[in-house]
Structure formats: structure tokens, C-alpha cells
Amino acid sequence: MRLVFLGPPGVGKGTQAQRLSTQRRIPKISTGDILREAVQKKTLLGLQAKSFMDSGKLVPDEVVIGIIRERLKESDCMEGFILDGFPRTVPQARALTAMLDRNRSGIDRVLNFELSDEELIRRLSGRRSCPNCQAVHHIEFNPPRKPDQCDACRGALIQRSDDRPETIRKRLDVYQTQTLPLIDFYKDQGILSRIDGSGNPEAVYRRVTDAIGK
Ligand code: AMP
User: Fold this and answer.
1) Which residue in 21, 59, 62, 187 is a FRET match for 32, CA 20 to 30 A apart?
2) Does residue 13 have an active-site annotation?
């Protein structure tokens, strides 16, 4: 099963992708996670990407397309995958179609997660992330047992530099102008499902499994 999870920052698609990945045993591929790891390790990719990410802008298409092209060649992707945060522009979506066509395969379904801006801002501004194991907490909705400590690995939780209020606004603007056109792109292909992103993660997960089938 080859899936794309689409939606604005903070809608919870990463959380849902992680659950589904564990349950269906297919990899979750998040360009955001790959880029953050590169920034942390100060690789050439990380150095290229950092300033775009810190200011809430998109990393150039050719960079992220290259990342995905290499990642999808790995053997764990043979049975399927969940793309979380890619594609984010029409050129990225076209490049993905071309990559998969070459393997005579295509995307089975695109889930578009929806939530009001007000709720997105609440979720993003209270989010605390673990740079060690990528787990995500929220100061209000999913607080860690010990303040600022990851429940899963006991790493120190941080606020992502792009989860600060001024950058959140920019990321939502970027989503509106650059990513929203993908909804029509996939609707026209007849593979788009809308997912109400409101409520707790369990409720959203039920909508996800309803949309993709057992
Ligand atoms: P995310 O964790 O998906 O919210 O991504 C964090 C940041 O990484 C974004 O704000 C972008 O700067 C960058 N990024 C992640 N995925 C992409 C993508 N598909 N295209 C361009 N930039 C991306």
C-alpha cells in the first residue's frame, strides 16, 4: 500500500503515519524528519536546509526530490510506504508520479487531513519534540510524565525552532500558497480522501483506517 499523507503543519499527520506504519509494517517516510536529522548531524544536506527550515520556508524541490528518490529505492519500501510531508508542491508531486511510473506502480491513496487554523496554532505552539527518538508530546494534550522529558526514551524535549509563533504563521502561509494546489492535483486523479483531523489521535486513527480499508 503506497500512501501520501497531506495536510497543514500541526494537523497530526506524523502521529497518524507513525501508528499506521507500526500497525501495517510499512515504513513512514518523513522528509521533515530526514532533514532535521541532517541538520542535527551538520551534514552538507543539513547545512543547505537549515536556513529554509528555521524561517518556515520550503527546502528547494530538487533537494527533497533527491532525498525521496534515494529513499524509495530501499528494500523496505517494496511492500509499500507512507509519505509524510512529501510532496508539498506540484513539481514534487509530478516528480513522485514519474518515479513511481518507472517502477510501474502508483500512489494508492492520498489522505488529506483538515483542521481549523486556530486549532493548528494551538497544536503547534504547545508541541514538544524529542530530537532523540522523534516522539512528540504536547504541553496540554499529551504532557510528558516528567516535565520536559520524553516518556519513550527520557531524552530532553525541545520546542522545534519552527514551532515558534512567528514561524508557525509563515509555515501556514507557505502551506496555503504552495501545498494546497495538491488537493486538486490528487482529487483529479480520484485518489483523494478527506480526513477530519479534529479530536483525539484514536478518533482520527479510526477515520484513517476507514478511509484506507483493512
Ligand atoms: P515537517 O516536519 O514536515 O513540518 O517539515 C519541517 C520543515 O522541513 C518544513 O517547514 C520545510 O522547511 C522542510 N520540509 C519538509 N518536507 C519538505 C518538502 N516536501 N518540501 C520542502 N521542504 C520540506
Assistant:
1) 187
2) yes
